Amino acid sequence: MRLIIIVLAYLALAFSSLSCKTVKPNGYFQTLQRDTTIQGFVNPGLDSKIITGDQLAISINSLSVDENMKFNNTNITETQGQVSTPGYPVDEGGNIKIHRLGVVHVAGLTRRELASKLEKDLLPYLREPLVSVTFLNHKVTVMGGVANPQVISLSGDNMPIFEAIVKAGDVGKEGRLDHVLIIRDSSDKKIVKKVNLEDHSIFASNWYFLQPDDIVYVMPDYLREEREERRRKLQGTLSLVVSAVSLVVVVLTRIIK
Questions:
Q1: Chain segment 19-29, per-residue pLDDT in tens
Q2: Looking at domain 139-220, does it have CATH number 3.10.560.10?
């Protein structure tokens, strides 16, 4: 009889341990070793060219304070209900209109090239002009298994994929870091690339930097909820079994006494 009690006790312990099974952790850079130097880090790539339909924010400053105000208070547009200063739409001919300069052809230039051109063209009107150019309509979209799916403004030419994911609230238990899709426009087609953010080789990938209009889709872990449901049911069943075994042990103990 004592042997039966011991066996039942072991069964109860075994069932309890089964209900506490751990799940594989979900984390970035799991392949990264401690104190490692990453070689071959990818550079941001080429600057984006200005195209028809772009909306540019151009800030012009100089030592000519009064003239600065005339430049920076023109062509103000509204973006998502907030005033952006100033906004210059690129028309179908690839041109914008700027105070003093009139029509300026900008299509095909990068932001830096346009800034340099404007600084040179404005010299007759401004003392030591400084120009900065950013995009108002460039964006990346992050969706799927992130905390806060959203469209993120891209003022520069690109954005590291991790920055975009953090802006979207990061990937939680509901998403798969090892299955992230980047969807990119290329002429008349879309290119889809699967990347693994658990692998530190992403730093050397040409897809590390997102480009305008990229879509990042973090694959939801569809099987996780199913596993969690099975685990909850198993835990409930095991709890009943353990309770029953414990009751039998107590009863047998009293009988033996």
A1: 555 555 667 87
A2: yes
